[in-house]
Specification:
binds magnesium ion; rhodopsin kinase activity; six-stranded antiparallel sheet; serine/threonine-protein kinase; 24 helices; 46% helix; 537 residues; two-stranded antiparallel ribbon; binds adenosine-5'-diphosphate
Amino acid sequence: GDLVGLDNLVANTAYLRAQQIDRDALRKQRHSLTLPKLKKSSALQAAVGQKYESLCEQQPIGRKLFQQFLLSSDPQCQAAAEFLEELSHWIFAEDEAREKAKQSILATFCHPESRRFLSYLTGEDAERCKHLSDENFNEVVMDQIREATRNFLRGKPFSEYLKSPFFYRFLQWKEYEKQKINDKYFYEFRTLGKGGFGEVCAVQVKHTGQMYACKKLDKRCLKKKSGERLALLEKQILEKVNSLFIVNLAYAYDNTTHLCLVMDLMNGGDLRFHIYKLGERGICMERVVYYTAQITTGILHLHSMDIVYRDMKPENVLLDGKGQCRLSDLGLAVELPKGKMVCQKAGTTGYMAPEILRQEYYRTSVDWWALGCSIYEMVAARLPFKDFREKVQNDEVTRRTLEDECKFEHKRFDAPTKDIISRFLKRKVEHRLGCRGGDPRSHMFFKNINFHRLEAGLLDPPWMPKSNVVYAKDTDEFTDTSEVHDVELNAKDEKFFKEFSTGAVSIRWQQEMIDSGVFDDAFIVSITSLSHLDRPK
Ligand code: ADP
Ligand code: MG
Ligand code: MG
């Protein structure tokens, strides 16, 4: 009765307060980090690899240190670093700011007399740069100059970076990144949801204040239901993806009872909840378009890595505290190397494409069909071939999916929405939007979305969750956790758990170090000699 209500209130209060943590206050309390001294930096260097893209572009700390190296290097390197920075301003800016960024690029980098002239360019690229003007300044030309700049950096600057103190500092961060993770690394807060093998709760990294969601998989339960291989697959796919529109993995570790996946915290509820439980049924069109743009970008990211999601539905799309959405629950996702297909039946009734239902071979096409169903559901609060709460056999849904016409009876369907749904719901894969040529992002439905800005996280969400509301069921609704006792774990299981528990995931972890200020605080000495590096104070 009242006590249960009180438990829930206490749990919610602690959880909400943790999210409002004052990062500056935490910074003052924290001891500044002393990075480990490297005993065998050559071995680590080999493990880290030699790829420019990974070391200098994809990994956030690597990117920062490479940039610092360039700025402290010769004028050509400085110009290249500053140019890339200004170029990204121009790409993401709009209106006046974009015009300003363009004028600044022209004035700073394109005049042979300028101190920042891109003098490393050769041949056609050099000509292009010298003759840039108001009229011929466009994305195609700028792409060419950017590629030429990257090619320059990949050469001598990169090989000098690898010999510099900046790279030694990077290796120290990599060593620190390998630290063992356990329960003590986090504070734990309330349960947010429940899955097939355990619960998902909110956690906070103690020394950075960063909030995450932790999906716990009961080891014995996994073994009993033979879910071990699937759990590992889900983890391996999660750690590969790096997108603003997919729930990314930050840590994978285990304790005596559970495997833990620590992921982006999505505290704004799932889209199914927003369609059916809040206010009038369905979501307003401005939000439908915005979410669909983010979902589409997330799906394209998965497909670019030959991953089929197979569980696209509003219930699996979660909102974060700002109102941006991400795809979650990659438990059904599979990686299909080029040219390979599957015919396994997988998905949720009502969202499965005809080719799955007919048990034919398929690739990524099934996600676009399911997206069509999901857009329909966001607008009409029902599925194209199944009414809300309709009691109907799966066979009948299959029959309707294969034979019936999709009807748009709800008054909120406008012409572009009907058109994009109809194109996603083409039964023939070769006619379906997203499958053969044709980019879904160029459809009229998205006419108000600037995908450049969306992908950079710069497009403000049309709706924001309230910061004092917990968009999850009350805690007492999750209490039923039946533990499994009749299963023994053996050496083979332990070996598997070890394979799973790889600790921090590079990109996400490095971003956490930067966002929380740990990176800057550990870097308060200027890099002049290696002996200074070991003891930042
Ligand atoms: P399962 O694969 O076992 O179904 P899910 O990944 O779907 O597990 O997670 C179960 C539930 O936990 C979800 O329905 C959702 O309510 C909640 N949840 C999952 N991931 C997150 C997250 N990143 N942030 C917040 N809540 C989450
Ligand atoms: Mg789920
Ligand atoms: Mg799952």
